[in-house]
């Protein structure tokens, strides 16, 4: 069934660039459609020019001179007020996010929950994380301070546009930096609205928001006033960013792609219905469009047949594809047609290679399904371990399940990937932890995966081509600082230097 949102939620939304505390109109706008119904316009966002991007960077640079001198109590107080404003506007934000992105309402609420959880953690921990350390020792005194870096260019993706914008905004500002945010053109509206809410509690120029095409991105990554780049997105895009930033040697935090594996040991109980539901959710939450979602599943051969049977049962119970505003819906459309077609091409390639593709779940409204960017979730069996659908990041509603014979084999299959964002191991806890220690990944979860195992108190990021640096945790705050060591020695003349 199709559920119509309330009248306020279906209004067309227009966002503008935010530069030095003012909304700045652009000569042209882009249209954001509803992925569940592409004929419906959700809103408009600007095509920011390169010149406007320069203005935003310069505004941030000017604001930095004053903002870096504010005390931590003032920064935290401003952020806490912003948190309360976001919480007060949550329903409005959730409706907008659901319409522009395609994620069901429960999922959109979940994204706000994660964003606020991180922002509150950052507020609670910032003073301790940024407090200077003073050590008295035999040779004198050493002061270690955590100084703000300067202007941060934050480039956020479309899959979790609010959470992956605030993951940058909160620590950057609390550390005393200023920021220029560029949301993804595939989900620009809700992220821009949240950024404006936060900006209303800070001095002009501390937070700026731009949109636009590639020339804006180039300006953010090459402008000499930009001291740090914080990017979440694809590995190939990150390679261009690294090259563009090389002339000015910018600090970077890059959270990139992943081909996250879930490994089920012989000790895993296939009759554990809650665990089977967790892995299904870990594969298909947000229609499989999460960087840390389980994208390939390896199951010990001794339990493989039973596992597949129980997996299909659990998937068919949980997966209901429909209108994001329908409370019965658990899986919405793919966010954009380009991504839908890419995922479809991987599934078709698997079929051509002889794999068995099994559709999962229930389509609640066939007419809606046919008009939107929908894909029915699929399970892929009997594929080769090196087929594209296994070794590439699908970022959509399909997952291959493959058998393995021993732990040495599955460790090799896991570690030969160019990616290393997250992984998960399922089975008896002691067995799972023992194997987890041998995996090359930034995070490994035991008997759960994806956001179900996320803890913002600890650092998150990838190894190999899944990224550089860490977000979340104390490290996610300090990554927006430069360590400054001040030495005050007692012995000014070293004994081995002649008079």
TrEMBL record:
PROSITE patterns: ALDEHYDE_DEHYDR_GLU
InterPro entries, A to Z: Ald_DH/histidinol_DH (IPR016161), Ald_DH_C (IPR016163), Ald_DH_CS_GLU (IPR029510), Ald_DH_N (IPR016162), Aldehyde_DH_dom (IPR015590)
Claim: Oxidoreductase is one of the keywords in the record: yes
Annotated Pfam families: Aldedh
One annotated GO molecular function: oxidoreductase activity, acting on the aldehyde or oxo group of donors, NAD or NADP as acceptor
Keywords from the UniProt entry: Coiled coil, Oxidoreductase
Domain Aldehyde dehydrogenase: 31-484
Source domain of life: Bacteria
Coiled-coil residues: 69-99
UniProt key word Oxidoreductase: yes
Active-site residues, as the UniProt record annotates them: 255
Family to which this protein belongs: Belongs to the aldehyde dehydrogenase family.
Protein name: Aldehyde dehydrogenase
Native species: Paenibacillus bovis
């Amino acid at each position: 069934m199709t559920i119509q949102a309330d009248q306020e939620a279906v209004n067309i939304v227009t966002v503008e660039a935010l530069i030095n505390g003012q909304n700045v109109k652009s000569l042209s706008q882009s249209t954001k459609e509803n992925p569940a119904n592409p004929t419906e316009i959700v809103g408009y966002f600007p095509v920011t020019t390169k010149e406007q991007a320069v203005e935003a960077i310069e505004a941030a640079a000017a604001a930095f001179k004053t903002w870096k001198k504010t005390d931590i109590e003032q920064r935290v107080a401003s952020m806490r007020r912003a948190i309360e404003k976001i919480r007060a506007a949550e329903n409005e934000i959730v409706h907008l996010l659901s319409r522009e992105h395609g994620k069901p309402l429960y999922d959109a609420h979940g994204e706000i929950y994660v964003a606020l959880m991180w922002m509150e953690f950052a507020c609670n921990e910032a003073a301790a994380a940024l407090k200077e350390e003073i050590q008295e020792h035999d040779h004198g005194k050493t002061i270690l301070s955590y100084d703000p870096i300067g202007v941060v260019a934050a480039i956020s993706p479309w899959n979790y546009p609010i959470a992956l914008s605030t993951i940058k905004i909160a620590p950057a500002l609390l550390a005393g930096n200023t920021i220029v945010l560029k949301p993804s053109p595939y989900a620009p509206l809700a992220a821009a609205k949240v950024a404006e809410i936060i900006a209303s509690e800070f001095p002009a120029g501390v937070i700026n928001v731009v949109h636009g095409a590639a020339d804006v991105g180039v300006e953010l990554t090459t402008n000499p006033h930009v001291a740090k780049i914080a990017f979440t997105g694809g590995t190939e895009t990150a390679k261009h960013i690294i090259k563009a930033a090389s002339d000015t040697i910018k600090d970077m935090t890059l959270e990139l792609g992943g081909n996250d594996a879930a490994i089920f040991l012989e000790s895993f109980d296939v009759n554990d219905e809650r665990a089977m539901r967790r892995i299904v959710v870990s594969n298909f939450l947000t229609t499989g469009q999460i960087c840390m979602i389980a994208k390939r599943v390896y199951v010990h051969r001794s339990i493989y047949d039973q596992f597949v049977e129980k997996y299909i049962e659990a998937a068919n119970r949980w997966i209901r594809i429909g209108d994001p505003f329908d409370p019965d819906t658990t899986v919405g459309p793919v966010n954009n047609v380009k991504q839908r077609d890419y995922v479809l091409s991987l599934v078709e390639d698997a079929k051509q290679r002889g794999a068995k593709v099994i559709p999962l779940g229930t389509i609640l409204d066939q007419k809606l399904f046919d008009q939107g960017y929908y894909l029915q979730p699929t399970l892929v069996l009997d594929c080769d371990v090196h087929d594209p659908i296994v070794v590439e990041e699908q970022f959509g509603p399909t997952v291959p399940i493959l058998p393995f014979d021993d732990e040495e084999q599955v460790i090799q299959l896991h570690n030969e990937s160019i990616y290393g964002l997250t992984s998960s191991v399922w089975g008896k806890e002691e067995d799972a932890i023992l194997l987890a220690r041998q995996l090359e990944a930034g995070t490994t979860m035991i008997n759960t995966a994806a956001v179900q195992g996320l803890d913002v108190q600890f650092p998150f990021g990838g190894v190999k081509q899944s990224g550089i640096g860490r977000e979340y945790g104390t490290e996610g705050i300090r990554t927006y600082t430069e360590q400054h060591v001040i030495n005050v020695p007692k012995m000014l003349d070293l004994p081995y230097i002649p008079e």
